[in-house]
Design brief:
Helix content: 25-40%
Number of strands: 8
Distance between the termini: 60 Å
Structural class: alpha+beta
Strand order of the largest sheet: 1-2-7-4-5-8
Length: 166
């Protein structure tokens, strides 16, 4: 039987600036090491029956060998996740934590139950994020402006001057 390889897929989300992604990892030993490169974003990841928040990284993050299974996730545009999750990005910088450390267990249990029952957990995460954004409001406009300037290739100095930062 041929060995299946892991498969990563992503698509734009209906939530402005977000990306829905999945990683399908076949079972078995010998999974290759994975590193995640920093992108200034935060992700909400459904893996192994739990929800994990990946804070913004300042360096490449090596995925724990025990945590290399399949997952579904949504990557939020800079400035979006802090509003949706109710925690400042700097508190999660370079960390991976269970959502239960940020939210009441009952709320997380309801969401994980919905994901576990879903035929498409990535789509269910996207639906959750869309509903949550309707309740929480838009991302921080200053953070969005900085991210936009840098994405357009502007220097840090010119982006800071453009948005009024020192």
């Amino acid at each position: 039987m041929p060995r299946r390889h892991q498969r990563y897929q992503e698509r734009p989300s209906r939530l402005d600036g977000a990306v829905v992604w999945t990683l399908d990892v076949p079972p078995g030993p010998g999974r290759p090491a994975r590193s995640v490169l920093p992108d200034g974003c935060m992700d909400l990841i459904w893996t192994a029956g739990r929800l994990v928040v990946a804070g913004p990284d300042t360096h490449a993050f090596e995925v724990d060998p025990h945590n290399r299974g399949s997952c579904a996730a949504i990557r939020f545009a800079p400035g979006t996740a802090p509003v949706l999750l109710g925690v400042p990005a700097h508190e999660l910088r370079d960390h991976r934590i269970d959502l239960t450390e940020l939210w009441p267990r009952r709320a997380v249990a309801a969401l994980t139950g919905r994901l576990a029952r879903s035929a498409d957990p990535a789509a269910a995460l996207e639906e959750f994020a869309l509903a949550r954004s309707a309740d929480t409001g838009p991302p921080d406009p200053l953070t969005a402006a900085v991210a936009d300037g840098l994405r357009r290739g502007r220097s840090v100095a010119s982006t800071a001057a453009e948005v009024g930062l020192g």
